[in-house]
């Protein structure tokens, strides 16, 4: 279906549509289905806006169980997960992607990023070809599209934005005129080193922008599967730190074992087939100034021993996926490799454990899961207006729009590898990150974004950094409905 057909069809049914809502429908994997959902919701003669379409998505998905008392009761525990075998596939892992340690790594890395995201931009704009910057410079006055990686961005004295982008042929000075307020706002949200396309025309020295295009993800339905299984998500335990909330974590494990909870909570535990852990498993050693005084376990191997013991207690029918974070004892530059055998030898022996890199992409019972600890969150908070550690899910949406988990080079460290493994090649169904220590959830274009909080009380360092932690909260995705249920171990535990 093309735009005209959609507008005609809607018109014939008594609907009008705004241009950005139309765009959203056209980007949908299944435009007819999305239109159907609109018909269900709206009465005749309604003007359909983008907000209406997006709001509908949100309303369908999120369900949070309010904090409730966790009571020990003897309830028959019959985990569904025991009847169903785990189905875990690794779609993308960065552990073995290595550079040569030479200068050419950098140029290859950016070239690969440009190529991968450039292709996404071309697919997105399929009915209208992009012109190379070199060619564009010869076609003055014509309206066309160019694409490139952002090298520079600044505001001019007259309130315009000047953005320098580079493709594989040349660089262009893109002017975002101050007269176009909407576009100016969009330009303000761009970050260095992300790959964008720009529509506009070449005047003498400048490319005058009329539209900015990010690769983004297509609109899709929230993924659901037939089996009534749950995916529980945690991160940032910081085992070894004095502020690791041991008792609460114990209670979480007892809940997974079916030993703790009221009827409703035990029924939810029965569904849990997967537990995914998004990094900062242990607190590490020498990670921030003054950390020594805050450690209960001062040996890194002993920290991982304590972590291993917890994982060994998780019932066998639950498959556990583990990625590292910046506190873990692997290199801190992104991408981070999976935990090596030296640190967690016994986990390598367990059939129900998968170790993966940060970021990595897996499928759990056909649910495509992107996992990333979130090392780049600080870059987003520092460089993008409106971003904060209180709302990690919102930052995750910004990553999806850019199809990249860590666009800025020169902020938090990145290891250049021949293939840029930080590009979001596949559109996930679920995206999990940690790092912020704050539970936040958002559904963006059908992708469930979850920031899975922490098990550490706030450290004085974090208080100083302006963080707000929400320890002991566990989101569980019910894969059959695509809904999020949340278990609270925060207010329910008396100490
Ligand atoms: Fe953390
Ligand atoms: Fe972290």
Report on the structure:
The chain is globular, with a radius of gyration of 24 Å. It folds into 3 domains: 3-61, no CATH class; 80-98 and 227-488, Purple Acid Phosphatase, chain A, domain 2 (4-Layer Sandwich); 125-213, Beta Barrel (OB fold (Dihydrolipoamide Acetyltransferase, E2P)), CATH 2.40.50. The chain is built from 13 helices and 19 strands. Helix 2 packs across helix 4 (50-61). By secondary structure, it is an alpha/beta fold. The longest helix is centred in the N-terminal third of the chain and has 21 residues, at 104-124. Strands 3-13-14-15-17-16 form a 6-stranded mixed sheet. The protein has a 6-stranded mixed sheet with strand order 12-11-10-9-18-19. It has helices spanning 3-12, 19-27, 31-41, 50-61, 104-124, 133-136, 181-188, 246-256, 263-271, 300-313, 377-383, 392-402, 460-464; strands at residues 16-17, 47-48, 88-93, 143-155, 161-166, 171-176, 195-202, 206-213, 230-234, 272-278, 319-323, 353-355, 360-364, 367-372, 430-433, 439-444, 447-452, 473-478, 483-488. Bound molecules: fe (ii) ion (2 copies). One fe (ii) ion binds next to loops.
Please outline the helices and strands.
Layout: H1 3-12, E1 16-17, H2 19-27, H3 31-41, E2 47-48, H4 50-61, E3 88-93, H5 104-124, H6 133-136, E4 143-155, E5 161-166, E6 171-176, H7 181-188, E7 195-202, E8 206-213, E9 230-234, H8 246-256, H9 263-271, E10 272-278, H10 300-313, E11 319-323, E12 353-355, E13 360-364, E14 367-372, H11 377-383, H12 392-402, E15 430-433, E16 439-444, E17 447-452, H13 460-464, E18 473-478, E19 483-488
Parallel strand pairs: 1-2, 6-8, 9-10, 10-11, 11-12, 14-15, 15-17
Antiparallel strand pairs: 3-13, 4-5, 4-7, 5-6, 7-8, 9-18, 13-14, 16-17, 18-19
Bound molecules: fe (ii) ion (FE2) (2 copies).
């Amino acid at each position: 279906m093309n735009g005209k057909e959609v507008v005609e069809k809607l018109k014939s049914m008594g609907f009008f549509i705004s241009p950005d809502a139309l765009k959203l429908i056209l980007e949908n994997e299944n435009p007819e289905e999305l239109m159907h959902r609109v018909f269900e919701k709206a009465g005749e003669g309604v003007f359909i806006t983008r907000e209406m379409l997006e709001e509908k998505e949100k309303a369908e998905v999120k369900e949070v169980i309010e904090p409730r008392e966790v009571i020990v009761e003897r309830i028959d525990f019959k985990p569904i997960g025991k009847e169903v075998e785990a189905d875990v596939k690794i779609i993308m892992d960065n552990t073995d992607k290595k550079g040569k340690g030479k200068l050419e790594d950098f140029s290859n890395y950016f070239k690969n990023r440009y190529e991968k995201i450039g292709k996404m931009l071309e697919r997105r704009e399929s009915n209208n070809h992009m012109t190379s910057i070199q060619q564009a410079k010869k076609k003055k006055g014509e309206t066309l599209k160019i694409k490139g990686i952002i090298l520079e961005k600044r505001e001019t004295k007259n309130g315009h934005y000047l953005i320098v982008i580079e493709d594989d042929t040349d660089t262009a000075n893109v002017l975002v005129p101050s007269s176009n307020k909407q576009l100016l706002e969009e330009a303000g949200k761009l970050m260095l080193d992300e790959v964008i396309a720009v529509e506009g025309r070449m005047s003498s020295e400048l490319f005058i922008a009329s539209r900015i295009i990010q690769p983004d993800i297509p609109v899709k339905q929230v993924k659901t599967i037939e089996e009534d299984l749950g995916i529980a998500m945690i991160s940032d335990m910081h085992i070894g730190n004095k502020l690791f909330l041991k008792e609460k974590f114990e209670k979480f494990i007892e809940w997974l074992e079916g030993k703790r909870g009221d009827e409703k909570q035990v029924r939810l535990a029965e569904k849990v087939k997967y537990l995914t852990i998004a990094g900062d498993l242990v607190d590490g050693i020498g990670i921030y100034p003054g950390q020594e005084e805050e450690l209960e376990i001062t040996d890194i191997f002993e920290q991982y021993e304590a972590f291993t013991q917890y994982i060994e207690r998780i019932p066998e029918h639950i498959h556990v996926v583990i990625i590292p974070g910046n506190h873990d004892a692997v290199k801190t530059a992104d991408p981070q490799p999976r935990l090596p055998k030296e640190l967690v030898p016994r986990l390598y022996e367990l059939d129900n454990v998968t170790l993966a890199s940060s970021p990595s992409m897996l499928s759990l019972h056909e649910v495509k899961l992107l996992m990333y600890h979130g090392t780049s969150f600080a870059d987003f908070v520092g460089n993008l207006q409106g971003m904060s550690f209180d709302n990690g899910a919102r930052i995750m949406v910004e990553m999806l729009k850019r199809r990249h988990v860590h666009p800025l080079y020169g902020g938090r460290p990145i290891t250049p590898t021949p293939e840029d493994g930080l590009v979001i090649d596949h559109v996930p169904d679920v995206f999990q990150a940690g790092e912020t220590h704050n539970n936040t959830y958002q559904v963006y274009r059908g992708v469930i974004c979850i920031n899975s909080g922490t098990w550490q009380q706030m450290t004085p360092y974090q208080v100083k950094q302006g963080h707000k932690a929400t320890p002991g909260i566990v989101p569980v995705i019910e894969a059959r409905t695509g809904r999020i249920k949340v278990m609270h171990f925060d207010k329910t535990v008396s100490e």
